[in-house]
Amino acid sequence: MRVRRLFTKPGESPYEGIPFREATSEIRNPDGSVVFNLENFKVPASWSQVACDVIAQKYFRKAGIPGAIKTVEEHDVPSWLWRKAPDDAALDKMAEAERDACETDARQVFDRLAGTWTYWGWKGGYFDAEEDARTFFDEMCYMLASQMGAPNSPQWFNTGLHWAYGIDGPAQGHSYVDFRTGELETSQSAYEHPQPHACFIQGVDDDLVNEGGIMDLWVREARLFKFGSGTGTNFSTLRGSGENLSGGGKSSGLMSFLKVGDRAAGAIKSGGTTRRAAKMVIVDVDHPDIEEFINWKTVEEQKVAALVTGSRTNQKYLKAVMEACHALEGDGRFNASDNPELKKTMREAHKAMVPANYIQRVIQFAKQGYTEIDFETYDTDWDGEGYRSVSGQNANNSVRVTDDFLNAVKRDEDWNLLGRRNGAVHKTVKARDLWDQVGAAAWASADPGIQYHSTINDWHTCPEGGEIRGSNPCSEYMFLDDTACNLASLNLMTFQREDRSFNTDSFAHAVRLWTMVLEISVTMAQFPSKQIAQLSYNYRTLGLGFANLGGMLMSSGLSYDSDEGRSLCAAVSALMTGTAYATSAEMAGEMGAFPEYDANADHMKRVMRNHARAAHAHVGEFEGLNTNPVKLDSDVCPDQELAKAAVIAWEQAVTLGEAHGYRNAQATVVAPTGTIGLVMDCDTTGIEPDYALVKFKKLAGGGYFRIINRCVPAALESLGYSEDQSKLVMEYAVGHGTLKGSPTINHETLAAKGFTADKLATLEESLKSAFDVKFAFNKYTFGQEFCTETLGLDAALLDDLGFDMLAALGFSQADVDAANTYCCGAMTLEGAPGLKDEHLSVFDCASPCGRKGTRYLSWESHIRMMAASQPFISGAISKTINMPNTATVEECKEAYEMSWRLALKANALYRDGSKLSQPLSHVADVDLDELADDVAENPTEAPQVVAQRVVQQLWEKSSRRRLPGRRKGYTQKATVGGHKVYLRTGEYDDGDIGEIFIDMHKEGAAFRSLMNNFAIAISIGLQYGVPLEEFVDAYTFTRFEPSGMVSGNDAIKMSTSLLDYVFRELAISYLGRNDLSHVEPDDLRHDSMGADDAIMDNAETMAEPMQAAMDLASNGYVRSNLYVLSGGAGSTSMASMGASASSASTSSGATQQVSAGVDLGAAGAVTVSASVQEKVDTKLDRIREARIKGYEGDACGECGNFTLVRNGTCMKCETCGGTSGCS
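Above: the chain's sequence. Below: its structure in token form.
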């Protein structure tokens, strides 16, 4: 193969003209602990901090590089390509600490990747001359350093360790096919043949224990998960429930084995990290157990809901029964006929369907002297015990549907479910009923996805090898079972010229070279099984794709949902795949077609002609297709040069293929480009649109600052806005970060109110990190003395959480809104000054942007963009179809049907809020009080109202219990995710909580006011008798910003939201809910083992009698149970304190925590000083902020940060680069 130079010059370093800089990378968990730290490593100067973090944390080899290496002479390889080996003689002379090194320069990584590809390319005969090899090496180094392209992660991990450093180790059970002899060989080395593949499809036989069978599959999956790869399997060969076994019994069915595999996958941390395994489970729509499979995740989510509701119901009523048993004196208190309170609580427990034997068991415990019982409760946290107790949580599920089935749905016909062994009809159902189940399940749980079997196999290049039945976890790689694919993606933004036109020449050049890279990778690779090694050699499938399409469209001034945008996507896809297949045909002309080509030549040529027809590069009708694809609409393509280049590329691909065949059965996919998208600094992944207009740039020293999406200024320029106009638009989105020059609230108006220069300087410092200007106006920013004496504000009002300082100073809400937009930005372009309405669609993202945004891309636009690209992609497209929470079951079905009509190969839906464990991003909560009023006023309409809304519980109205004028309580100061929070409680004389106040330090008025009013609402609820437990259950584990690390609280170290923190604190202090604490109660005692010296020095024991303490001290402050016995005459002997037990195991498996009654008359309370509370600190809370920033709102499984974004059918973390997929 001839290789031309385009980016580099002969005799010069490929890095000439690319400046490098020293960088530092530190990634922390939300609790502040350091995950990774590396200082003074070298990277290209233009790389962002995130890209630096990814290459340093994930792709640098951390250890095992010999401190001294030597070249190993090979007569058939140019000397500059000789591989390296440890120099043992030199190593012996070196100090022990110097013998082991690590990579500290990005050029080391680029060189080992490009060098290894060139080395194996030379050995495999891919270059016509040595100069071609040198050119190939230089061009690849340049593209890697310039972020123009990147291979999938296993290449970065494994490729070149043996060639560049001589790293080796014992074989790991891999196999490869020797490219010289064509013979299957067992690897003798762990690293000589690298393992560069990320995506696998594995088959499974209907056999229990033999090789290739069910239990063997779990072992094969584990081998892949361990090394960070993903795998998918079609399980339709397995017999359904009740089918005959050879030994005379009946099969337990498909689902029983899927649950075993799901458990196995859930126990393995993929790649040795904290993320779960990447797995796809596929079942054909005619399988006998298909109905159970369709509803699998929906039912499991219902189980979680039942666990949560049931456990909380049991706890509530069983505790009430226990308390009722001790409400009276005497033996008769345990008899319902003699104890009215017990009778009442038993009746209520029966109504709530609490098991009768549990009620009796609690009474029996009470008879034995126990006074408390703790029934374990569950929550909806995805990593919690509730979800771990159910199955189906460790894979993506997909149903394989055929055209016959979908046509039966249209005609409302019957559909037969067929036995696996004999093909006999096992059951007949209505096709439309089955389809309704699919839609309802996808609506309720975001699974299953759909794979369109007929369409997939219409484009199958090698049907003589069997049908395509499976896919990898992200659904972009679809080919025969027991094959693998290595991926690479090109960053489309790097191929734009300054005038935003697309550089077709450089793009085609890059496609050609990267196709060679992926082909060479098949030659050099080893595989985890013999079957995968053989079939990967026989078919040589590749997975070249692109990233940053959404960024390229926006920067070009094109809407994602536009004919022009879709046409540009189609043209790019056509040029990429046409050039890749032309290159494959060129390689076939020199090295021969793939081994199975001759058997499939006619089929592959037909598929190539169909691709070319979609690009208008071949005449005639489509051949052998059940559903015609969407053709390239070249007339509306905004880049005619690109459209013409796509036609030429496909003409060459077909012509060269007719002459030489093809080297590869498949060439392209559109992958999620998760981690590699970050290392290329892509704004968007794969074919996805952007997720936010204002992003948060990471600083090298930690922290973030707001910046406009870099595509926005380019888009404004493309749309014809001047520099000044663009500046106004961007300042509207990002804000100025200051009140200087604000149209309403500014330094002048504030000075007129009495603000001095030093107070304005303090204010400006607070505004830098504020999301709302109101957050900065409080007594903690300016000091109480200034607020009362200079501003003339009432001291009592300053302590009121509902107090709005700006309103008290005379500013209207309109003034505040204008100042807020000026200072903190809108984080959306909706309403931006001077921006024309017709241009708003250019800036539409997958979800509404910021707090004020309402616009977002429709689910139809996602599908139509996929349909524009799919006719030119060998494999498929990994993409999430985002749907709003308001989407209906019918719309889910329509999305699937629309995908089929537009000839897509797969579709995965995600309706916002469809997962029980995930918060809604843009939907208002149901007002329970309003609903209660509706029911009371319109009793005849009540059933209809309840059916329309989700109601957790309605409370009967009761009389309000007023708090005493002078009351107890406590104040807890803490910092949640960097935001100071002051929680104040008010108590009745008996110690019950009756009110709360929540105040924020240096926060804007909108959020503070929201918290103030929220606290008032909770206080009123408490005073009307709503149990604190109900609020705790409702608000713990809610997710929004601020969230993250918690400092200043001795028991709580992290939280998922401000409300989560508040109600954890209240639950621990007033309910004894130590299950919500992150610190064991005993660890807070001064005499606990391993206690901090500061704790031991500061712990104080009150000497007064307990009764006096309880009369004066806050019950919440001492947390009800922090007692020690006082010494001296007042002490009570342990013998008089009754029986005690720490736990009792029940027959049903529940564990009840019980404790005996204690005479507290002589006990003293333990208090902990504020200094100790400040010392015991640090954890987390960032979800509302994450949502506003455009993130998903979930924590990364690897680093814990809330910076996950949608990434194809997976998610990726923009902090550490982790991905839930296999790339």
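The two ends are 29 Å apart (CA to CA).
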